[in-house]
UniProtKB/TrEMBL annotation, chain A:
Protein name: Amino acid/amide ABC transporter membrane protein 1, HAAT family
Organism of provenance: Trichlorobacter thiogenes
Membrane-topology annotation of the record: Multi-pass membrane protein
GO CC list: plasma membrane
Transmembrane regions listed in the UniProt entry: 12-32, 37-56, 62-82, 94-117, 144-162, 191-211, 231-256, 268-286
UniProt keyword terms in alphabetical order: Amino-acid transport, Cell membrane, Membrane, Transmembrane, Transmembrane helix, Transport
InterPro entries named in the record: ABC_transp_permease, BCAA_transport_permease
Pfam families attached to this UniProt entry: BPD_transp_2
Keyword Transmembrane: yes
Family to which this protein belongs: Belongs to the binding-protein-dependent transport system permease family. LivHM subfamily.
Signal peptide bounds: none
UniProtKB/TrEMBL annotation, chain B:
Any one GO MF annotation of this record: branched-chain amino acid transmembrane transporter activity
Designated name of the protein: Amino acid/amide ABC transporter membrane protein 2, HAAT family
Origin species: Trichlorobacter thiogenes
Membrane topology note: Multi-pass membrane protein
Compartment(s) where it occurs, according to its Swiss-Prot or TrEMBL record: Cell membrane
Amino acid sequence: MELGNQLLQYLLSGLSTGAIYALIGIGFSIIYNATGIINFAQGEFVMLGGMLTLFLMETLKLPLWAAIPLAVLLATLVGLLFERLAIRPLRKASPISLVIITIGGSILIRGLSMLIWDKDTHALPPFSSEEPIMIAGATVLPQHFWILGITVVLIGLNKWFFSHTISGKAMRACSYNPRAAGLVGIDVRRMVLLSFVISAAMGSLAGIIVAPLTMTSYDVGVMLGLKGFCAAIIGGMSSGIPTVIGGLILGVLESLGAGLISSGYKDAIAFVILLLILFIRPQGLFGKPESERV
Amino acid sequence: MKKELIKYAVFALCILLAPLVFSGNYLMNVLVFVGIHTMLAVALNLLLGYAGQISLGHAAFFGLGAYGSGILSTTYNWNPWLAMTVVALVVGGLAFAIGFPILKLKGHYLAMATLGMGIIVYIVFNEWVAITGGPSGFSGIPNLELGPLVFDSDLKNYYLVWSFVLGCVLLSVNLANSRIGRAFRAIHDAEVAARVMGVNARLLKVQVFALSAMICAIAGSLYAHVMTFVAPPSFGFNISVELLTMVVIGGLGSIYGSFLGALLLTLLPEFLRFMHDYDIVFYGGLLMVMTIFMPGGLVRGIPDLFRKITGLKNKKGGAHA
């Protein structure tokens, strides 16, 4: 295969993994904007999406179209419980306690999944045919199009929710200033809960659409979650387009790095980018620097 | 200060006499690991409990120490003591250098950056097969020697490791009670206020980060020479989290608390062998329960609990009288 075709191939597969990172990153940002918490358990929702769908299909023999919404629902329920049981009792705690509690939560969810299911990796069936499609010399699996399509729809929905619905606007108000939002009658605690619900739903759906390509197991959440966080950092913790671009940049760079440099160091690329961004532009690629409030 | 000295003397005496009470190779071996974990937990506690800076990548420094010593003393035939010293200094210097950009970050961002650093190092251990042996590990590391004495039995290793632990605890207790220790606590409580009072917060934070990394590297060297074999899983993200759990459970900002945390989290899995796969669930649950109900850790939580119980009794007594 000549280099041009090869590059196109890497670009296309990079875009679809990038889309997944973008969805996970938006989940991080939504919770961060509502609460100031980085939810280290975000990746576990992604894992739950894939594993629950698999469980519903294999054990309960549900068809794929029924298993997916049910799995998202169940994962969202876990997100809701997590907020009620772990985050709410600690609202006034220091960032370090919050980091520790979400890490504790993620270990717990991962551990329980390992016990309930197993340690093996499983494949989810693709949403449509497995026949690859040829585009200008590059072979693309139909699942890539599913990923890109569903991501575009989700991002559109997300945009609509935050700019055109009362709840969405209320959540934005909370992210600007929770006290002022409370004063004008917004139930801040409900909005925090809602942010966990939305992130869990988006994360789990991301986990479902990627599972046919990359397989799923009890521990896929760690890496996917961290890379979603990288996407959010590149996007300056925005719950909109900058994080999407962040995810796509990360996905493409990773895919190019894996293809052209070394696949073993693929995961390291994301973290080198993460560190560089944090060191050089902690406000994200597109943000303006903020002055620190004391 | 006198109270601290007595506390330390009692601690040291207990450690030195422990082999008289507990014997058997298996138990000694477990206690060697308690020692290594205590060093790591104390090192992380200096950073997290005193200076208030989180790190989710401390296993990387531990790993660099272990691989550094192992590779230098085996592949390049260096004297193990020399290798240990050089590696500790290099890792300390490295931590000092990356400390400046990394400690500019706060809270969640710092947690993520240290985590990223830890994962990069872990990936290198796995992928740089020619030097590290890759996923199958690096073996044939020599034991440490001191003149005619070769540290090759569990009892000898016990005294080797614990003399390092005692040194490290003494250093930490002294540091915590010095002018620098007070400056750390000021940074922890209010960094801006501390800076206004003339504390060079930035430099101090980087220095404690480097010191903490150095202690971890020494612990890593000891681990390599005691085990004579190292492999990447001993230095992964899980280990960083385990260290964090030890510090939190023992109590942030308490040196002896870290020992307690290390003791508990090293012994428990040994006693809970029958539920081997459940230990990860146990860690996660323990972390959450402790942060919610006992944010001060065992060293503060248990006296509080005790006071609450006796307080309740007194109240009852008062009502009856």
